[in-house]
Write a structure and sequence with these properties.
The chain has about 300 residues and is an alpha/beta fold. Among the domains are: about 40 residues; about 140 residues, Glutaredoxin (3-Layer(aba) Sandwich). About 25% of the residues lie in helices and about 10% in strands. The protein is built from six helices and seven strands, in the order H-H-E-E-E-H-E-H-E-H-E-E-H. It has a seven-stranded mixed beta sheet with strand order 2-1-5-4-3-6-7. The longest helix has 19 residues.
Length: about 300
Amino acid sequence: MGARPAFELVRSGMAVLHDRLPLGAARATGLALILALPLACLEPDDPPQSPASTSSTTGDSGTTGDGDMSGDGDGDTGGDGDGDTGGDGDGDTGGDGDGDMSGDGDGDGLECVGVIPLVDEPPGDGDGDMSGDGDGDGDPGEPDCPDCAPYWRLYDFQPQSCGFEQTYGLDSFEGHVTLVVLLAGWCSYCQSQATKLEQMQLELMLEGYDAQFLSINGVSADTPEYQQNLIDRCSFPLFQDTDEVDGWVAHGGSKDDMYLYGADGMLALELPAGGELSTNLSTEEGYQNVKQAIIDAF
């Protein structure tokens, strides 16, 4: 199987995973497919790699030639044949049996999704309002220039996020191409968008693009039930908007709008809902429009 057919097979498999498996299992299995892709790209005539020696009498004090007495041929004394001393048979020393070193037991090699927050602080900067921009006029997070990323500080309620339960802002994502999406957990369309965004981020990762995604959940959706609707459908950071900060207004948008920022923190493209370019990710046109815009921002 050539590289391109293998890539298409993995991409199709990932779409099925997102439709049929719980989010955590789909993401972990999708990443396993990514790691397996180099094997899938081997040509049929490529010979398999074989051990340097299969002799049982290579000069060690055991019977398998691996240098230990466990009899499993792996070179350690764990006795489980995995090549480490963790004793769990997974091939790493994390001790959780998942095959990676993160220690979280999910097998995806990642401890969290997103970025490590630069700060963990409530909104407000001592100027008398809660905007965090230091001018005291009460306006929420006015940017320094029309294309600069707005300043805001909001609470991240996504358990899988690196910033879970911390209050931080868009400046933590500088250095990464970042897509900001304005959603509301009570909205079925928003829920569908979140699912497709999760799929897209994994696809971009497979293709070598380290794009960061985040969403601001609207003030009207500030309930545990509505938040859970988004948590169940994606793993990227989810921020809860407030009346005081009003992150939607800080971006100058409304529900379903998208904002794409370059690694320099400058606005690369605004994608309003109902604009010239479709952003309905449940359609092939909308999905490709957004995905290509992200790739073009690199």
